[in-house]
């Protein structure tokens, strides 16, 4: 399948050097509002998306509708089993799920026709909720391989492992990890927190137009959560968009979503702004999902 | 070092053996279990003829060292009652030897198929052919260990015994630590330029390693095909024996990358005295048939044994590991990792990993009464307690109809032991592939990396970095010929 190069500025695809500006979420919000005005076509347009589990034929998504524009920060909340993670996995092309209806257009392209690696190369990133361990493959080799796949896609020459080192070191600093992290096997013997940081490290190395963070906050202590949030704030520019799936308010306070959605029974039951989180905290998902 | 005569091994036939193991094979293909065998104890004419040809090829002169002479006699005796193995014999149930049998076997009278590469040996160490050994005391020491036989010694052990033209001896005296590895390069039989196509030239290299108390050595056995001789049709039938003294440590690397038309049968028999350590790292990827028989026998308590093997079948090949670990003494620690990759629809891997943890050993006790009499009794001793044995086999089948037959089996008769075993047969993990793809790496690259990483776990265990690098690139080429 032929893929056009990113329609958006390649800046957003090419990983940027760590930002020198202080992490100050409100500044980012101001910036993104500006960019929001300039965005002409939606970054991601999901229409009536339906999907089932391949193995059991159980339908999970019953018609999801969602539009994400450049620079927006979306939070998807909802109770366990409402389809939040399935939605994220379907977007990145997880083979356990089969799309049974609807459409997804990402940067003007039909996302559902792309292989998972093509989706990644076109600027879609998802952090895994439980990243799998890959014995025998070092974090360093994995990152170099992924970074070179990205460079190849952009028509840039591939780099040797040594040439990548200084670039990777900067990204390690960003997620507050020690250099020996690179020598360990991918997610091998990582603690829950290390796995999550590793996902963000990959986001930092690869960059993304749309980053989907699937429960990046679960299993993190307060300090780790701050590290992760600050890294995400530094990685994302006003041109990037973010979709986070979460159960908790803590990360929302740090990443300041512009849109909040509540998923229920495989659909987006309600959308609003950050103020909706207050209602959820006070009255629970049931009330929020059913009231319109 | 213990004499072997009164060790547990010598009495193993007295062990009243009740086995708790199941002998079920984990198999990808449904196979009918053969009926119980009536092993014929009559001579097999084919074997006798082969034995005769082999004996004739070996010059028996008065100068033949006595241990070698004894070895040949004992082997010749056992060949009289050993038939050519058939698929009805349990140890060869999945291993087809017919292409050897259908060939005309001709022994090659190599002066020595073993090339020794080593340097800086202390003068007290001996590494060389037994025939060149001048020290009579050392010859006497060697006589203690030869010939060695054990219950599961097979035809190939005996064939090597009668046909080995010489024996390469490694002798490391007490407390001597060898810094540099001893490297054996086995030259495959070089047939004459014109020979009938059904002929298979046979070589029988044999090595005996004796590490005295507290000694340390690292030995590398390298069965790699010569450049440009990748199509050789030959049969290497090698035997490696080691006796590891009290507190001694042997690190053993074994690499087999012979021709895809060759037969490679190999014995590794190790006897471990108390507090000794044996580490084996094996990578076998060559041969139409690769068969490794590995036997470790504990001679005393507190031994450490670590075995790691990687078998790779990328063509119409069978890679077969039959291992037996006999733990008769307390506090033996063992870890075995077997990994195989079958990347061809006609490829096969076989693993029979047997661990015997025995509870009782019967010892012959002679009590002195007076000059004329002694009381002889057999005493039952409780042994092999606090054994810690672990075994894991993992197989990767990459093509439809690729076959693996694995039988990890523990026979535990002691009651205070910790044993574990596991077997997994699979294609690559979907979740791992997706993880690569989700980061923009295409599926073919991901598969290649994951397959190599699977084998890398064993390759990483070679102590020598030059062996590691060489094996790594060889395996990479086999798995992905397009890579260079």
UniProtKB/TrEMBL annotation, chain A:
Keywords, alphabetical: ATP-binding, Nucleotide-binding
Annotated signal sequence range: none
GO molecular function, one term: ATP hydrolysis activity
Source taxon at top rank: Eukaryota
Region (Disordered) location: 1-24
CDD domains linked to this entry: ABC_FeS_Assembly
InterPro entries (alphabetical): AAA+_ATPase, ABC_transporter-like_ATP-bd, ABC_transporter-like_CS, FeS-cluster_ATPase_SufC, P-loop_NTPase
Listed Low complexity bias regions: 1-14
SUPFAM superfamilies in the record: P-loop containing nucleoside triphosphate hydrolases (SSF52540)
Transmembrane segments annotated in the record for this chain: none
SMART domains hit by this protein: AAA
Annotated ABC transporter domain residues: 44-290
Name listed for the protein in its UniProt record: ABC transporter domain-containing protein
Species of provenance: Vigna mungo (Black gram)
From TrEMBL, chain B:
Domain SUF system FeS cluster assembly SufBD core: 202-359, 382-454
Pfam families on file: SUFBD_core
GO BP, one annotated term: iron-sulfur cluster assembly
Protein name in UniProt: SUF system FeS cluster assembly SufBD core domain-containing protein
